[in-house]
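Quarterly update, task 2.4: adenosine-5'-triphosphate-bound model.
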Amino acid sequence: MSVLTTNYLTPSGREEAWRFTPLKRLRGLHDGSVVVDQRHSLTTKSALPAEVSFTREALSPLATSDDVIIERIRGEATDVAHLHIAADAQIKEAIFLTRLGGGVDSAELSRVRISLGSHAVATVIVENIGDTILAEDLEISLAPGSSLTFVSLQEFDAKSVYTARHHAVVDKDATFKSITVTVGGDVVRILPTVEFIAPGACAELLGVYFATTGQFFEHRMHVDHAVPHAKSRVNFKGALAGKDAHTVWIGDVLIRAVAEGTDTYELNRNLLLTDGARADSVPNLEIETGEIVGAGHASTTGRFDDEQLFYLMSRGITVENARRLVVRGFFSEIINEIGNEEVQERLMARIDGELEKAGA
Amino acid sequence: MSTLEIRGLQVSVDTENGAVEILKGVDLTINSGETHAIMGPNGSGKSTLAYSIAGHPRYTITGGSVTLDGADVLDMTVDERAKAGLFLAMQYPVEVPGVSVSNFLRTAATALRGEAPKLRTWVAEVKEAMEALNMDPAFATRNVNEGFSGGEKKRHEIMQLELLKPKMAILDETDSGLDVDALRIVSEGVNRAKANNNLGVLLITHYTRILKYIKPDFVHVFANGHIVEEGGPDLADKLEANGYADYVSK
Ligand SMILES: Nc1ncnc2c1ncn2[C@@H]1O[C@H](COP(=O)(O)OP(=O)(O)OP(=O)(O)O)[C@@H](O)[C@H]1O
Ligand SMILES: [Mg+2]
């Protein structure tokens, strides 16, 4: 165990990046007062195909970061859990990385790298379960022509604190698709960020979150169109139920002057299932060139649709089951993109459970 | 043998300018096996009557009663009314994103029958119900009413009627938006439900066309929030010829 040094700028909460986050509940991850435990909790679930390796090694970061917690992780964590998929490998079955929480008495600082060689194709599912305090610097590199579906599941127990950046660097003609699911934890703050480094690349960031009583879930996207002819799509759907459930969605998309031919659209939809919950939604499109294919955003926050509930109930379905159907229906568009029945059904059951717990 | 009894029903809706009374004392009794047609001008309150019986939250009951075999319908939640044997085929069926027709039908059947239908027989049952209404089996995997054409939505309503087997059905302009073939197919569906389950029907329509297929025992003229005249099937022909001028001026 060790105590972090504190020679980093501690956020005060007034900074744009931190203005929504309840710093007091971060257990000292942001100001360095946290006690760190050397645990490497991320493991593979089953034997890996020959073209896939999972090792611990020293790697320098792929990209810089202005996030103070990421800086701390890089200062402390010396080696990186590295999942590599060899060039040209076509991995049909999803690769599971599982993390069982190590408790909330101390924190884990984690660095993870997922890299795909050129023209590799794979699906990686990272499962976060149990209780933990975890700060994570997760970087993804996609070589030219590769294609990754990255599923990140936050199925934590009630006390967990998770702050992370999931940063993808996408090279020429590569396709990155991420599905971020946050349904558990006390405080979860994820920065799904994408950086295009060559033309022809494509990124699709999908996500769902469901916060119930007292939970705080923040998803702060950043998509950097720094090259011409890249395409990005963002679609996050959230539901909230119960007193002081709070979610934050920030969609920063930057189209730089050189990024001609950019095609981007971002969407965030929130469903407020009870009073007393709060959903912040801030799309933010910065456009430095007019020579683009398209750029748009939309953000909506609504409640249960009485007409839908009435229609279902008029066929004998109880109000609880009608609500469950509507919420499942709302999330299914994204959850079904995971492409793994077992995981999808598990998440839907968790969502049912959260809904029931919140008494919505 | 069931009886749906509506007595002195008064209903209002809340608007920005306060409550507005729409139904001004409706009296109507429907027995199993009977078909009652209701015809009346736009805005006279026909859908309000249908929704009020089904329990739509938008409407406030300010007077009167609705009973099914003596049980107080107005005291029941929407799903309890369905479980008691009431069914409403809606004028504008609602889209439910992300909920497949097959999941919806199975959930409804489970709720109404008190147990989940056996998977084997259920699949065959749904297939048969869809075929009977000339619906492509692909509809089962689509989301409820999402992107359905007007006529497809109406067929979907009658397919549910056949599958869910209620005692009393209110059909709110089920014939509107149907082409000639669909009108016949949908009417046959209603007639099958009548024959098989001794269904009582309250059929709201603007056209005598559907009454050629579904023969009414009684025709009621609805105007200004209540029933203003009652008669046999020939009343419908009279209305078609003369319109509602006699009634709305009253
Ligand atoms: N929220 C509301 N505010 C004001 N008026 C309303 C409201 N809801 C319904 N009404 C009025 O109630 C009346 C009855 O409506 P209803 O839909 O029952 O008519 P209808 O007989 O079914 O007509 P149609 O033949 O066109 O289907 C209409 O005049 C309608 O405008
Ligand atoms: Mg109407």
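Highlight for this quarter: Chain B has eight helices and twelve strands.
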